[in-house]
Task: structure prediction
Amino acid sequence: MSIENIEKRKTPIFHYGITIFLAATLFVCVFSPDSKNPLDRLRQDWLGAKGPGNTTEEMEKLCTKNLVPPQPQESHDDNFTMMIRKAAMDDKRVILTEVNQAFSAPNSMLDLFLESFHNGEDNITHLLDHLVIVAMDQKAFEKCKSVHHYCYLHEDVGSDLSSENVYMSKAYIDLVWTKVRLWQLILEQGYSFLFTDIDVMWFRDPFRHISVYADLTIATDRFFGNPEDHSNHPNTGIVYAKPTEKNIEVLKYWREARQRFPTTNEQTVYHEIKYELSSKFDLKIQYVSTEYWGNFCQPNKNFTKLATFHPCCLVGLEKKIAQIKIMTEEWKKYKSISLKS
Ligand SMILES: *[C@@H]1O[C@H](CO)[C@@H](O)[C@H](O)[C@H]1NC(C)=O
Ligand SMILES: *[C@@H]1O[C@H](CO)[C@@H](O)[C@H](O)[C@H]1NC(C)=O
Ligand SMILES: *[C@@H]1O[C@H](CO)[C@@H](O)[C@H](O)[C@H]1NC(C)=O
Ligand SMILES: *[C@@H]1O[C@H](CO)[C@@H](O)[C@H](O)[C@H]1NC(C)=O
Result:
């Protein structure tokens, strides 16, 4: 049969048929129930506005996800990564911390934490422009928004995370594991993070103690002189990670290892798997001396060196706050003396 014959056989009714079929397909594409995401809808509307293709095959392409970049599954995560993007420095670094109701009460950790930047040396207040605070409950979120620009409400957590979580309680353990998930999300977006516990006081810029050599940089409770030695006692109250594929795999492995050590926090699991991590992934880890990232477990307290101070090895929120206040006064005294001299 020649092409001419086919052309002749096409009746107007046949044309209407095709038009109706195409219109129906387009309708299904744009208003299909799986386009819950408004962004998705927008994209499809935009494609629709360009006009349908000429064949049903092209129409089907509009329906498939081939043309649309893959959509992240959880919209909570969308909001989180959007905030990370906004808060990041030019070189894609962000600072991350977590807070709950107890730690965000007036004159509690959140206030002390933010204040420490203003009392810092080397003008570290600008680092606050790159800090994302993850609030673990509504009260902490409200408080955060009243004192800081980048606050993210984490809503996916099962346990009640608003109280001062007893060390190693279920709520406490859930809390520490959500942070590892957020770390992974940040790296997957191509950003590096410096995670800091909310009770770490910042005196100077801690980035000065992170080398480009290491994949992961971790604070210590006790430091024995060699930054690469796993026998240093790690403390995940401050962690820095480069945005590499290797580190993403490492965090996945770390999170999965939780199942092997149930009812254990992320720091203890890290301690259990650190040799596995170095050998499996050829992971380069740098442990930071307590001279620079200080604490009460191995107090050095030489203010000419100290960048941060973490009241670990002290139990109880009240006690920590009291000690931090003493420390802050000492630091201010040091600063005023060193300014005069
Ligand atoms: C549809 O067909 C017309 C005429 O054959 C052609 O010029 C046009 O490029 C086609 N459009 C698409 C989207 O393929
Ligand atoms: C994401 O952010 C928008 C705008 O800030 C907000 O309206 C929406 O509820 C957030 N969605 C989720 C799932 O957190
Ligand atoms: C500290 O940084 C802020 C913001 O970047 C700037 O406005 C201020 O002038 C700086 N202060 C000093 C003493 O460098
Ligand atoms: C503190 O550190 C500085 C700089 O390294 C050093 O010169 C000084 O001796 C130290 N002070 C004490 C008391 O160890």
